[in-house]
Fold this protein.
Amino acid sequence: MKKYITGLAIIALALVGCKDNKCEKTLSGLCKADFQTVVNGDSTNLFVLKNTAGMEVCITNFGGRIVSIMVPDKTGNMQDVVLGFDSVADYINVPSDFGASIGRYANRINQGKIVIDGDTIQLPQNNFGHCLHGGPKGWQYQVYKNVKQIDDTTIEMTRFSPDGDMNFPGNVEAKVTFKLTEDNAIKIDFEATTDKKTVINMCNHSYFNLTGDATKPITESKLYINADNYTPVDSTFMTTGEIATVKDTPMDFTTPKPVGADIDKYDFIQLKNGNGYDHNWVLNTAGDVSKLAAKVVSPASGITLEVYTNEPGVQVYTGNFLDGTVKGKKGIVYKQRTGICLETQHYPDSPNKPQWPSVILEPGKVYKSTCVYKFGVEK
C-alpha cells in the first residue's frame, strides 16, 4: 500500500457476512460469503485455485486481487505468504493495492501528463502530483467481470475500460488469467486491446511475506535481482530518466543479501528518496520468461519465491509506508516492511521517456504481459 493513494468513491451494496461457524472456510481461513457483494452494479466473489500438491490460491474479482497464497514451509506446514484482507468490505473501504491487477498504467506517470500524436492528455494526479497506478479509481478499485473458472487451477476475468476512463484514451478490453501449476507456480497473463492509441502497463501488486507470519518484517529475507542497472528516482519517487549501475551501491542484489542489509543507509540518496527500496530494476533477462528475474528466500520458513517475466523491469517495494494503521487478515496489524512487492512491468513514466521500451498500444495490436511467481522450499 503506497502512502499517498487517495480514497475511493465506490458504493458497496448487499454485503453478506459470514461471521458464524457455519461458513465453509478456505485453507487460508477465508469465507466466500465475506467477498460476495455488489459494487456499482457488478457482483464480486472469492474464487479458489488448488493443485494436486496441496497449494491454494484465493482470488477476488474486486480489483483482480490475490487474497491469499498457501504454500508449504520447510517443516511441511502450510503458510499464507501474502498480505490482504478477510473481506471485500475492507478492500473497498481501505485504499490499498494488496494483491491487485493494476491498470491502466502501473506505477507513476510524471505530473499525470502523456502526449500521444501531439495531443497532451492530463491524467489524475494522486501521488506527489503524479498519476500513480491508473489514478484514484484505477482498475484495482473496479470489478473485473465475466469471470470464468476454467478448472480447479485456472481462472480468467475481464475488465472493460471506456474511452476517457481516468482520462486515458481508447476503449480498452483487458483480461487477466491466473494459472496455478503443478510445480507450485502462479502464472499471471495480462492481455489488452484498444480502439484508439493509448498506453498500457499492467502488473500484479501482491505483498509477499515468506515467513508466513505477517507480524514479522521481511528484512531478514534474502533477495536476488538479475539486474546490473536500475532507474533512479527523485524525492517525489519519479524516475529521472537515468539508467544507473547497481555496482558498489546498496541497490546491488546480483549476489543475494538480506533485504534489510542496506535498507536504512539514507546517506545513499536513492534510499532516502525511496524511504527504503521503491525502485525499478532494469532486468538482464531481455524479455525471456524462462530466465530468473528475481528470487526471495525466507531463512525462517525456508519458503522461496522465484519471479519470471517477459517484462523489461521489476519494481521492488519493501512496504516502507505500511505504518501500523491497517489491520489485515486475522486482525494482524501491518507494520513497516512486513511485505515486499515484486511488480514486473515497463519502467515508470515510460510514456515520457522515449529512450525506454514503449508502452504504446495501438488498435489491432494485443498487449501481452506475463508474470510467474514460483514457490519452493530450501531446508
In short: The chain has two domains: 12-106+136-205, 222-370. Residues 222-370 form a domain with the Beta-galactosidase; Chain A, domain 5 fold (CATH 2.70.98.10). Confidence is low (pLDDT under 50) at residues 1-20. The radius of gyration is 19 Å.
